[in-house]
């Protein structure tokens, strides 16, 4: 795996770090008065990361089986063509207000339910499980990253290791915000509220950018592997 592909994966992980489970829900908790509740926050984030990693491993195993099947008929490029088609579709969908508005609306509804106390009695791990389940249809950057790994020439063990690292990168921004909140509660509360307000106002536009960037990177990686633009 080249440095460029690795950089793409890190970029996708950072995009994933702004999702419902990795940032929106932790941000709601960090905006509450009082000291940071580290135990439930860490339990939540670790559960989210573990579930993402588990989903990734399952998808890699499926991809490994598909790769072996295609290898038997000498058609490995089929995976890359599928990846290219998915990337182009995502890039095109980024210009559809109906598509991005639907996904952005889901995130805001989930955020508002948490603020209103809906489901407050559920366990922390249960809340994390629900958050990841809600995100499954919208985890486009993660699915793109898994697709890139599945189509790479890395051994399955190395792919699994990268998936684990990807899941850790996803929760790093929330952890850094928590550290800042604990270290300087009064100083960072106002910026956190501004960030929350900005995320709310820009939800649809940010979703469109996510679709567009993920689509571009996925399509570009496939095009490079297929040598579509080589002289």
Automatic annotation (TrEMBL):
Pfam families hit by this protein: SfLAP
Keywords: Membrane, Transmembrane, Transmembrane helix
Family annotation (InterPro entries): Gap/Sap (IPR021315)
Keyword check for Transmembrane: yes
Transmembrane regions: 6-29, 41-61, 81-104, 124-151, 163-188
Protein name: GAP family protein
Source species: Aeromicrobium alkaliterrae
Lineage: Bacteria, Bacillati, Actinomycetota, Actinomycetes, Propionibacteriales
